[in-house]
Amino acid sequence: MSEFKLTVVTPDGMVYDGMAESVIVRTTTGNVGILKGHAPFAAPLTVGEARVKIGNDWKTAACIGGVVSADKEEVKIAANAFEWADNIDVVRAENAKNEAEKIIGSSSDIAQLDKAKGKLLRAITRIHVANNK
Q1: What are 4-56's pLDDT values in tens digits?
Q2: 24, 32, 66, 129: which could join 79 in a potential S-S bond, CB 3.0 to 4.6 Å?
Q3: Domains observed in the chain
Q4: What are phi and psi of 50, to 5 degrees?
Q5: How many CB atoms within 10 Å of residue 124?
């Protein structure tokens, strides 16, 4: 397979800047796979698992929103958060999940519920990615 340049950046800085053979990310309309030579493309990202093939290995990450853009030679991901499976703090994610579930089970405030549902989705995604690397 042919390689392309992949850049992944978050507000905290550069996460990856190198070559890749394939990228799979979750957009707001579903998963998208990108290979070298892809037609020009841009889409908003939602919370989900990202998969990147580097050499012969697949690496997974929790991608927390953002945007992806691609052309024939390069893919750029600007994410709100992008955490490789090996770097995810599972204990912290479990605590966030438990806290969100408590709020969802006890609150009637719509804004608080919406915030807790987002927190729950992010925590579940991180736990899933960390446990399925």
Answers
A1: 999 999 999 999 999 999 999 999 999 999 999 999 999 999 999 999 999 99
A2: 66
A3: 4-85 (2.60.15.10), 89-131 (1.20.5)
A4: -115, 145
A5: 16
